[in-house]
TrEMBL record, chain A:
The gene is atpE1. It is a multi-pass membrane protein. It comes from Zobellia galactanivorans (strain DSM 12802 / CCUG 47099 / CIP 106680 / NCIMB 13871 / Dsij). This is ATP synthase subunit c. One of its GO terms (molecular function) is proton-transporting ATP synthase activity, rotational mechanism. Belongs to the ATPase C chain family. NCBIfam families: ATP_synt_c. The keyword Hydrolase applies.
Length: 62, 392
């Protein structure tokens, strides 16, 4: 029971984080379209780090 | 535009083909008839995620009520107490509960939850204690060609063939033909977008071979995991751990003086903080970096497989409440789109593993140009750029 609640909290947290990453990257691209490639690369790396954390926690909580 | 729509059509057909096959495998999955309940679905998925000693495509109940399994066996290679023993996994007759005893080379073997045990001397069948652990049997050293090993060998040979033929074409003429045209842009992409920016113009050549190998290895194995043969190679902890250890060894042994200096005795920070930073840096380099690499790949691929199979299982678990057509339709739509996402994830995870490997190698071989300001006594004055660079 508690591990399910924990897993839910993790997913909520990861969702907020991914939203922040995506939103800020979009803002950055809108301000500087010529830096799109660099911003996308950095965005994917950070998203992957977050995803790794979320999946690790989900596996521990399962 | 026409090519693109043709490509999308092929992809859609391929996905539907895969789903129908996986669904068929699931519907007849368990050993005791069709999979219906939540527990059976769970057991089936757990079985799929694990490595196995044979390929099990599907099974059905024959006319005389006998279970028939369709698949093909793989060689079992064991180092038992009586030396090397080899036989085909078909000797176990698809048994996974320790019922079938195989006698080879003076030892008796049983298969229990995808692991092979050797019975103690004198025992004729396996006995269980109250936790359902084998009481009178011990694990043996298992060098079998399992499903994952078979997948790795298959992809290894495929890559050897594909890339050596691509290399041969360059010797003859400048432009590759056939399958090489698919590979060339990807090779150039890994070189120009992953290796060069992260490692640097001067040193990238030495590491590009490793990065290309690991990229194509992970990507092709991820795609193989989406076919109906039940491969889950990059979802095995042992495989991803081995890949992460390769990266660890490469960046540890190619680290230059600056790398070790910054790790063990960070310049530009107060002396009292340096040992603390050294502990953090050492933990980061030897534990956290490889661990994050191996957990990310393992968890992403395993979770992807679990999600796809759970969505397929909807057609059995919701059969009563939605009706056969409703449950099947829902399951088909959901699993179709999640399979499309999995195709993307297969590429993304290969890209991220390669990218982070390149990043870590680049951090180890980076030349720090020491043009910091020096104060009156000759000590270095740290600039923000230098300190920040070490924390990223």
């Amino acid at each position: 029971m508690y591990n399910l609640i924990g897993a839910g909290l993790i997913v909520i947290g990861a969702g907020i984080g991914l939203g922040q990453i995506g939103g800020k990257a979009m803002e950055g691209i809108a301000r500087q379209p010529e830096a799109t490639g660099k911003i996308q690369t950095a965005m994917i790396i950070i998203a992957a780090l977050l995803e790794g954390l979320a999946f690790g926690a989900l596996f521990l909580g399962k | 535009m026409k090519e693109v729509s043709k490509m999308i059509r092929t992809l859609v057909l391929l996905c539907i083909f895969c789903i129908s096959f996986q669904g068929f495998a699931l519907s007849e999955g368990g050993d005791e008839g069709a999979v219906d309940t939540k527990e059976e679905v769970d057991a089936y998925i757990q079985h799929h995620i694990k490595d196995a000693h044979d390929f099990h495509l599907f099974s059905y109940t024959g006319d005389n009520g006998e279970r028939k399994h369709v698949g093909f066996p793989l060689p079992v290679i064991l180092w038992s107490s009586n030396g090397l023993v080899t036989f085909m996994s078909s000797e176990f007759h698809h048994d996974d509960a320790g019922k079938v005893v195989v006698e080879k080379g003076g030892s008796k073997f049983v298969k229990l939850h995808s692991k092979i045990y050797e019975l103690n001397a004198g025992a004729t069948e396996v006995q269980f204690d109250e936790h359902h652990h084998a009481e009178n049997a011990a694990k043996v050293l298992d060098f079998s060609i399992t499903k994952s090993v078979f997948g790795i060998l298959l992809i290894g040979l495929f890559m050897l063939w594909a890339f050596s033929s691509l290399a041969k074409q360059y010797a003859k003429k400048k432009v590759p033909t056939g399958f090489g045209r698919v590979l060339e842009p990807l090779v150039i992409y890994v070189r120009d977008e992953i290796a060069k920016p992260n490692i640097g113009e001067k040193k990238y050549r030495k590491f590009t071979g490793y990065l290309l190998t690991v990229f194509f290895f992970i990507w092709i194995l991820n795609l193989l995991g989406l076919t109906p043969f039940g491969f889950n190679v990059t979802g095995q902890l042992a495989v991803t751990a081995a890949l992460a250890i390769f990266t660890l060894v490469i960046y540890t042994f190619s680290g230059n003086k600056d790398y070790w200096m910054h790790m063990l005795w960070m310049p530009g920070v107060p002396v009292l903080i340096r040992p603390v930073l050294a502990i953090i840096e050492l933990a980061g380099a030897f534990v956290i970096k490889p661990f994050s690499l191996l957990v990310r790949l393992f968890a992403n691929i395993s979770a992807g497989h679990i999600v796809v199979m759970s969505l397929i299982a909807i057609m059995f678990t919701l059969k009563k409440s939605l009706g056969v057509v409703g449950a099947t339709g829902l399951s088909l739509v959901l699993s179709f789109f999640i399979t499309l996402i999995e195709v993307l994830v297969a590429f993304l995870q290969a890209y991220i593993f390669t990218m982070l490997s390149a990043l870590f190698i680049g951090m180890a071989v980076a030349e720090h140009d020491h043009d910091h300001e020096h104060d009156a006594k000759g000590h270095e004055v740290p600039d923000a750029e230098d300190v920040r660079g070490d924390f990223i």
